[in-house]
Amino acid sequence: MGLTVEQFSNEIETALAVYDKYVVCLEKTPDECRESLESLTKRAIKVFENRGPNLRHGIALDKHVTVMLSQANREIPLCAIYFNLCSPYHKEKAKEEEVSPEPSSDES
Fold first, then answer.
1. Domain residue ranges of the chain, discontinuous segments joined by +
2. pLDDT digits (tens, 9 = 90+) for 56-73
3. In whole angstroms, how far apart are CA 53 and each of 1, 35, 72, 78?
4. Which of its termini does the chain have fewer beta carbons within 10 Å around, N or C?
């Protein structure tokens, strides 16, 4: 099919306008968001073009954004861009939980 990121420039520009106006993100500047959207769109295209015969979507995501391409009755797939809700105040689970030693059993 030969999809390119440029084919989805309208969707990316619309998402960037929303990001700039409504989304508060302490970890990404608007320029970093653009780079992220372009990279995720490339990954979604790759997934979409290599999907199985009964699958209709190509999805790529990071912590802040999800890009989904969906098969449609038109020349190029539909492109949906979602901003994932997250909070900088949300505590992440410990990567390694402490394992307490098992109590020894006395056989006296």
1. 5-83
2. 999 999 988 999 999 999
3. 15, 30, 14, 18
4. C
